[in-house]
Specification:
The complex is a heterodimer of chains A (about 240) and B (about 350).
Chain A lengths: L3 E10 L2 E11 L4 E5 L6 H8 L7 E6 L2 E2 L8 H4 L1 E4 L11 H8 L6 H14 L1 H5 L10 H13 L5 E5 L7 H16 L3 E6 L2 H7 L2 E6 L2 E7 H6 L1 H6 L5
Parallel strand pairs in A: 3-8, 3-9, 6-7, 7-8
Antiparallel strand pairs in A: 1-2, 1-4, 4-5, 9-10
Chain B lengths: L1 H8 L3 H27 L4 H32 L6 H21 L2 H4 L1 H28 L8 H22 L15 E4 L2 E4 H23 L1 H11 L1 H6 L4 H26 L10 H14 L4 H23 L11 H15 L15
Antiparallel strand pairs in B: 1-2
Helix pairs in contact in B: 2-13, 3-8, 3-11, 3-12, 3-13, 4-6, 4-7, 4-11, 4-12, 6-11, 8-9, 8-11, 9-11, 12-13, 12-14, 13-14
The chains are: A alpha/beta (about 240), B mainly alpha (about 350).
The complex binds adenosine-5'-triphosphate and magnesium ion (MG).
C-alpha cells in the first residue's frame, strides 16, 4: 500500500473549483514531483493534503489513515511536514527558535538537539546564524531554514512547495542536491515545482497538473521525454 | 533655488498643517510648564508625589492595556469589550470584598483576602473574555476587520447591561483595608502605602506575564501564531487553543487589575465603570505600540504619569481653571495626538506594515 494516496479530491475557495478530482500516490521512499503552470492547483493540492483546506469530495489516505477531515495541527504528529510556498519562516524569531518550532510536537529533548545538529550539519550557513533573526537571512538561507525546520519533526513524508523559487542557479543546485540527500536518509518526498527540468531529474515519478486536473502521470524519465511536457514545461521544441 | 522649489512641491497642505499643529502643541506645553514652574506654586515634593500616584494609576492601565495588546498581536483585532472584561471582575468582587470586610476576614488577613479576591476577579474576567472570544469573535474570524470591531461594541453594551441586570445599577464601594490606608515618608515626600502596594502588585503580575511570553512553550506558540497562523498550524500548534489562551490571560490580568483598582480608588464601582479605564488602557496600548508587550507596560505607566502631572504642570500654567478635572481630557488628547503623529506608538511597528 502506498504511503500517501490522494483519491479524486475536489477543493474549493468559496465558489472557485480549484481541484477537480485530483488523484495521486506516493510510495514509501520515493520522490514524486508535481509540476504545472501558474494557478494549476499545485499549492492547493499540498494545502489539502496537510489539512489547511478540507476536500469537499474524495479522500486522502496516509499510511492507511483517512486524513480528509483532520485539522492541520495534527498532521505533523502523524509524520507529515511541509515546506510552504514562499518559505513561511517566522521572520521575527531567531534561526534556532524557528528550528525548535519545527519540533514543537516532540518531547524528546535529546533527540531534538541531535536533530538540530543534523540540520546544522546539512546547512552550515544556518549554524553560523543560529542566533540571528530569521527575517534578516537571504532568500536562499530562508529556504534552507524552512527545509531544516520541516526536518526537525522527523517527518516520514515531506511536502515541498517550490523550494527553488526565486533562487540563483547555484543555490537551486544546492537545494536539489539536498532534496536528494534528505530522501536518501529515508524521507519520502512530494515535490511541487515550476522548475520541471530539475524536479523531474531528482524524482522517480511525476504528475502534471493543469487547471485543477491531473493531465499526465508517468515515470520521471518518460515525462522528460514526453513531447507535451518538453514543449510546455521544459521549454524544448 | 530649483532644489528648494522641488522640495516644497513634495509638501502638501496637510503636512504643513500637521507641522503647524506640532509646533503649537509644543509651544503650549513649554509655555504652560514654564509659567507653572516659575510661579513657584508647587515644590519638587509635589511633583514627586504626583508622579508616584501617576505610576500607581498607570500600572493599573498597563495591566488592562496588556489585554488589548495581546489580542491585537494575535488577531490584529481591537477587543473593544475589554473594558467590560475588567468591569466584570471588579464588579463581582466588590460584593465579596464587602462580605470579607463584614466578617472581619479582610482586615485580619489582608494579604490573603486580597489574593483571594484577585483570584476570583481573575477567574470571572477570564471566563467573560473566553466566552466573548468563543461566542462573539470566533465565528467572525476571516470576516473584514470592521465586522468584529462593531461586534465588540455590541458585546460591550451587552456585558454592561447584563451586569446591571445581575448586580443592579447602584454604585458600590470597595471596603478600606486598614493595613493599606497609612502613609510613610521618604525625605520630604509623603507616600500613601496603597500606591506602593498597587504599583508592586501590578509589576509582579506583569513580570509573570513577561516570563510567560518570553520563556514558556505557550509564549513561543503565541509569537508563532501572531506571525503566521497557517505555518504555526503546520508546526503542530493548535491555533484556537492559543487564541483562547491569549484571551484568558488578558482577561485574568484585567480581573486582577479590577481588584487592584478597587484598593486604589474604592468608589464608583458600577456596570459602566469599565468604559473610561478601557479607553485609557487602549490609549496606553496605542501609545506604547499596539501588539508590543513591553510597549503596553511602558505606555500605561507613561499615561498614568502624564495624566497625573499634566493638569498642574501644563494646564494651570496656561491659566485653565479646575485643571485637575481635566485628566481625562489629557488622556484623550494624547490618544488623538499619538494616532496622528506616531500611530506605531513608542515601541511598535507601523500598523500598515502588518499584513491584515
Ligand atoms: N486563497 C484563495 N482564494 C481564492 N482563490 C484561490 C486562493 N488560492 C488559490 N486560488 C485559486 O486556485 C487556483 C489554484 O491555485 P494554486 O495556488 O493552487 O496554484 P499553483 O499551482 O500553486 O500556482 P503557482 O505555481 O502560481 O503557485 C488558482 O486559480 C488560484 O487563483
Ligand atoms: Mg503555488
Amino acid at each position: 500500500m502506498a504511503l500517501l494516496e490522494v483519491n479524486d479530491i475536489h477543493a474549493y475557495y468559496g465558489n472557485i473549483h480549484a481541484l477537480k478530482g485530483v488523484s495521486l500516490t506516493v510510495e514509501k521512499g520515493e520522490i514524486v514531483s508535481l509540476i504545472g503552470g501558474n494557478g494549476a492547483g499545485k499549492t492547493t493540492t499540498l494545502r489539502t493534503i496537510c489539512g489547511l483546506l478540507h476536500p469537499r469530495g474524495g479522500n486522502i489516505q496516509f499510511d492507511g489513515e483517512d486524513l480528509s477531515r483532520v485539522p492541520a495541527h495534527h498532521l505533523v504528529g502523524k509524520g507529515i511536514a511541509m515546506v510552504p510556498e514562499g518559505r513561511g519562516i517566522f521572520s521575527k524569531l531567531t534561526v534556532q527558535a524557528n528550528l525548535e518550532l519545527g519540533a514543537y510536537t516532540r518531547n524528546d529533548k535529546a533527540g531534538i538537539s541531535e536533530d538540530l545538529e543534523k540540520v546544522f550539519h546539512l546547512f552550515p550557513r544556518l549554524a553560523e546564524r543560529r542566533t540571528q533573526v530569521a527575517g534578516t537571512l537571504s532568500g536562499g538561507e530562508q529556504q534552507m531554514l524552512a527545509m531544516g525546520r520541516a526536518m526537525m519533526s522527523r517527518p516520514r513524508l515531506l511536502l515541498m512547495d517550490e523550494p527553488s523559487m526565486g533562487l540563483a542557479p547555484v543555490l537551486v543546485d544546492l537545494i536539489f542536491a539536498t532534496i536528494t540527500d534528505i530522501n536518501k536518509t529515508g524521507t519520502t518526498i512530494l515535490l511541487v515545482e515550476q522548475n520541471a527540468h530539475k524536479a523531474l531529474q531528482v524524482a522517480s515519478r511525476g504528475y502534471v497538473l493543469q487547471t485543477g486536473e491531473i493531465r499526465l502521470s508517468d515515470t520521471a524519465v518518460a515525462l522528460q521525454n514526453n513531447a507535451e511536457v518538453r514543449n510546455l514545461y521544459l521549454g524544448i521544441e | 533655488m530649483e532644489d528648494l522649489r522641488r522640495r516644497l512641491d513634495g509638501v502638501s497642505w496637510v503636512d504643513l498643517f500637521l507641522w503647524g499643529l506640532r509646533i503649537v502643541i509644543i509651544l503650549l506645553i513649554v509655555v504652560g510648564a514654564f509659567n507653572t514652574l516659575t510661579s513657584g506654586k508647587y515644590t519638587i515634593t509635589t511633583w514627586i508625589s504626583l508622579s508616584i500616584s501617576g505610576l500607581a494609576q498607570g500600572s493599573i492601565y498597563a495591566l488592562i492595556a496588556l489585554g488589548y495588546t495581546l489580542v491585537y498581536g494575535i488577531l490584529l483585532m481591537i477587543n473593544f469589550a475589554h473594558g467590560e472584561v475588567f468591569m466584570a471582575g471588579a464588579f463581582t468582587t466588590v460584593f465579596i470584598a464587602n462580605y470579607f470586610n463584614r466578617i472581619g476576614f479582610l482586615n485580619t488577613y489582608p494579604l490573603l483576602a486580597i489574593l483571594i479576591l484577585m483570584v476570583i476577579a481573575a477567574l470571572v474576567s477570564m471566563s467573560v473574555a473566553v466566552l466573548l472570544e468563543r461566542i462573539a469573535y470566533r465565528p467572525l474570524r476571516g470576516a473584514p476587520r470592521l465586522v468584529p470591531l462593531i461586534t465588540a461594541i455590541g458585546a460591550s453594551f451587552f456585558l454592561q447591561y447584563s451586569f446591571r441586570g445581575f448586580y443592579g445599577s447602584g454604585f458600590q464601594t470597595y471596603p478600606t483595608v486598614t493595613a493599606l490606608s497609612g502613609t510613610f515618608t521618604v525625605g520630604k515626600v509623603t507616600i500613601p502605602v496603597v500606591q506602593v502596594v498597587v504599583f508592586f502588585a501590578a509589576i509582579a503580575l506583569m513580570s509573570g506575564l513577561y516570563w510567560l511570553v518570553e520563556r514558556t512553550k505557550m509564549g513561543k506558540s503565541m509569537r508563532a501564531v501572531s506571525e503566521d497562523k497557517e505555518v504555526a498550524a503546520l508546526m503542530g500548534i493548535d491555533i484556537n487553543r492559543v487564541i483562547v489562551f491569549t484571551f484568558a490571560i488578558g482577561g485574568m490580568l484585567a480581573g486582577a487589575a479590577g481588584v487592584i483598582n478597587g484598593l486604589y480608588r474604592p468608589q464608583g464601582v458600577y456596570f459602566f465603570m469599565g468604559f473610561i479605564p478601557g479607553i485609557k488602557a487602549f490609549t496606553a496600548a496605542v501609545l506604547g505600540g499596539i501588539g508590543s508587550v513591553p510597549g503596553a507596560m511602558l505606555g500605561g505607566l507613561f499615561l498614568g504619569v502624564i495624566e497625573s502631572i499634566g493638569p498642574n504642570l501644563v494646564l494651570e500654567g496656561l491659566g485653565i481653571d479646575g485643571a485637575n478635572q481635566l485628566k481625562d481630557a489629557i488622556a484623550f488628547t494624547m490618544l488623538v495626538l499619538v494616532l496622528i503623529f506616531r500611530p506605531q506608538g513608542i515601541l511598535g511597528e507601523r500598523l500598515s506594515e502588518k499584513k491584515a
